[in-house]
Amino acid sequence: MQFQLNTDHNIHGDDRLSEIAQATLADALGHLTGRLSRIEVHLADVNAAKGGADDIRCTIEARPEGMQPQTITHHDANVQAALRGGAKKLRALLDSEFGKRETRR
């Protein structure tokens, strides 16, 4: 699975943040990571220097093999919380989408 982290000019996207993001998603998605070919994470500080509640936007695009890309967006107060919330939303979406495609017996 390929992983890519993109940040805006207000969030410093270094190797450490990339490792944290990748570990957070791998932990949240668990067994689903084997069914994904690529994950892209986009982090942006919506209000920039003004601050404010829930001003970090985390958009995650997952590309499941054999399916259309799935995208979620989550807003939270800081980068780590936005990543955790986004990962949780993505897992729920992927569980639902994979569940729809599995044959029921």
SSE order and pairing:
Elements: E1 2-7, H1 15-29, E2 36-45, E3 56-64, E4 70-76, H2 79-101
Parallel strand pairs: 1-2
Antiparallel strand pairs: 2-3, 3-4
Helix pairs in contact: 1-2
Short characterization:
The protein contains two helices and four strands, in the order E-H-E-E-E-H. It has 105 residues and is an alpha+beta fold. The model has no long low-confidence stretch (mean pLDDT 91).
Care to describe what's here?
This protein is of the alpha+beta class. The longest helix has 23 residues. The chain has a single domain, classed as Double Stranded RNA Binding Domain. Strands 1-2-3-4 form a four-stranded mixed sheet, with helices on one face. It is 36% helix and 30% strand. The radius of gyration is 14 Å and the shape is elongated. Helix 1 runs parallel beside helix 2. It has two helices and four strands; from the N terminus they run βαβββα.
CATH architecture classification name: 2-Layer Sandwich
CATH homologous superfamily grouping: Ribosome hibernation promotion factor-like
CATH top level?
A: Alpha Beta
Large-scale geometry: elongated
Mean pLDDT value: 91
Number of helices: 2
Q: Biggest sheet: strands, sense, closure?
A: 4 strands, mixed
Using only C-alpha atoms, the radius of gyration works out to 14 Å
CATH topology, anyone?
Answer: Double Stranded RNA Binding Domain
Helix/strand structural class: alpha+beta
Low-confidence region ranges? none
Instruction: Write the element-wise H/E pattern from the N-terminal end onward.
Output: EHEEEH
Percent range for helical residues? 25-40%
The number of domains is: 1
